[in-house]
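Hi R.,

Here's the input for the RRO complex you asked about:
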Amino acid sequence: MKNLATEFCGVKFSNPFILPSGFIGETPENERAIVAGVGGLTFKSLTALPRQGNPLPRVWRYDHGFLNSVGLRNPGIDKGLLEIVKFRKEFPQPPQIVSLFATKISEFVELVEKAAKIKPDFIELNLSCPNVEDEFGKSLGMAAEPAFKIVKASKKVARKVPIICKLSPNVIDITEIAKACESGGADAISAINTVGPGMLIDIKKRKPILGAKKGGVSGPGIFPVALRCVYEIYETVKIPILGMGGITTWQDCVAMLMAGATLLGVGTATYLKGMGVYAELAQGLATYLKTEKIKSVSDLTGMAHS
Ligand code: RRO
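And here is the predicted structure with RRO in place:
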């Protein structure tokens, strides 16, 4: 499917589908995504120190998607990067994104410095985890000024590794944050992280279902929010967008590209439909391009803007 090949920040992808930094994100899942033909993948966000994550249950499926409060469960940057180096030796392709999360600007810089040394294809600054609060009660990158400072400082130590900023929809104006990231030197934006946080209550037990009570919402129900965010970001910045949030069908893919995305994050749909979803979406998208006589998937980017 030659018409699905694309480029993002100068890196070549055989198709636009990316496994986002998910709510499980363990190695077997990454391997299965590669075998299923994913175009690129993101490792689970790493923090300076290991984190056990939030109390169980951390993930809950409901009628319209999932609720998660994983709480950044990860082995910490040092062990995490060793695991990624090992993984990349076995699977040098497709392109891979190392995701990082911190609650202080100086900590972000330390993480980026370490991650850049292993030369991943991209570094993602997770400016938007809904399940870990900083001293102000929200993710550090959910305001324009700290987002600008994080990116500016990170770019100084990122060597040549392109920086992607992952944004939250749970802000008053996502374009302000996107603009701040671009001004700070970001190479790309990924949007959106999960919506909310939300809550579900077990009416028999008479208490919230998730161990942490609330968590980020993902899945088909958030797709219109993701589409609107990507549409607005595309009108605001010049850097490319990795669009995600509830993409489940090939029609969603076409719409997300038309809104302004160049790459497409598909995560929750792999839990709903299995890893075969990548082949299903690729087939649907390739057939659509052929039927519509559109040469390449990249020609769809931004088509919905007049
Ligand atoms: O680990 C999580 O709880 C988590 C993260 Br880091 C994130 O970025 N988004 C999300 O929904 N969950």
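One thing worth noting: The longest strand covers residues 96-100.

Cheers,
M.
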